[in-house]
Amino acid sequence: MKKEDNRLEKSEAFDWKAEIISWIKIIIAAAVIAFVLNNFIIANSKVPSGSMENTIMTGDRVIGSRLSYRFSDPKRGDIVIFHFPDDPTGTIYYVKRIIGLPGDTVDIIDGKVYLNGSETPLDESYIREPMDPEPPARFEVPEDSYFMMGDNRNFSADARRWENKYVKRDKIIAKVLFRYYPGIGKIE
Question: Which residue ranges does UniProt annotate as crossing the membrane (predicted)?
Answer without folding.
Answer: 20-42
